[in-house]
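User: what does the whole thing look like in 3D?
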Amino acid sequence: MTVRVDLNISLDGFATTTDQTPENPFGEDWGRLTEAYVATRTFRERVLHDTSGAGTTGVDDAYAQAYFADVAAEIMGAGMFGLHAHGDDPGWRGWWGEEPPFHVPVFVLTHRPRPSIEFANGTVFHFLEASPEEALARATDAASGGDVRIGGGPTTIRPFLKAGLVDRLHVAIAPILLGRGIRLWDELRGLEAGYTVTAETAESGTVHLTFAR
Amino acid sequence: MTVRVDLNISLDGFATTTDQTPENPFGEDWGRLTEAYVATRTFRERVLHDTSGAGTTGVDDAYAQAYFADVAAEIMGAGMFGLHAHGDDPGWRGWWGEEPPFHVPVFVLTHRPRPSIEFANGTVFHFLEASPEEALARATDAASGGDVRIGGGPTTIRPFLKAGLVDRLHVAIAPILLGRGIRLWDELRGLEAGYTVTAETAESGTVHLTFAR
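Assistant: Here's the predicted 3D structure for the full assembly of 426 residues, as structure tokens:
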């Protein structure tokens, strides 16, 4: 059982974008940050339900396949589920429509817990106020020996990294500079200790960097 | 003729360290940031004058060889020459002793110009107060068709990057998180426009990333 993190970041370290406007609710940066990942055949199949076989099949796609493999429970922050934007709506069911691409129990960390939401495809969102250690214990239990992913965003992930709870950190570094957003790497001096760090470059120019124990 | 930048940075983007103390005048971070570069055969020959043939000969060394090739003039900030620490000493001749590894004219940007310093090996330090464009014109003239390097530090380099004066930017990204220092990437949103970005991973785990026009 492995505790994993997988994130897309820019060369200047931004993992969450902050250029959203009412006219452009996702901003322009998010699409550029995730461009190589969204272009993969695996993303198109798993998230867009496009079974035409379209999409890239190189190094980026190999990481996209690994992204979905073996994860049996997920933890995410309230912002990633959409509670910062939609928390006042008791009917909010996340960004992903009726086919969320998780297929496993997802534990959403929030100071305002709400009833669980279950989907036909196996995705169940649970809401809890918990420390990283407590949330990981819940998710580990639910995963029954499978892997647990800390999904994001960076503000949620950092305490898990600092507490030494993450076994494998994979960052896909897009070769772009955003100059704004929320950084993954703040206050993580010395994180590399105890990990082996490897890197591989994809055809898209994305650098896949992995910290593994 | 190419205007070049070559820098060692950490994964969290720090190009200059700030952990110097009177007891440890270079700090502990600088050695870790430059470890893979200092280990190369080329660095040992060119900077340490070690002709024993010791040192690594892989990808890092190929970049170290390229570092020294074709550069016919260099521009650096006052801090890189040592004027922030030693500016009150009129006899200060730089950090590098009597064999500075440049062998070409070096233009040091400072608000307090001083007389030029010439070394037997071809290195000449000139001191000038100038805009990036003016300094580059001086260095280009001195280079007589050879390449010009903007040597550092990041605070000196950033205005040259912002002004679109750099043809090739090579960063050697050490797989470590320093958590402190001076960042290269601040306020460089969109720098990648107009460049092709490529990356290559060395045996040391260093990721060599190149922005080329």
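In plain terms: The mean pLDDT of chain B is 95. Chain B has one domain: 3-212.
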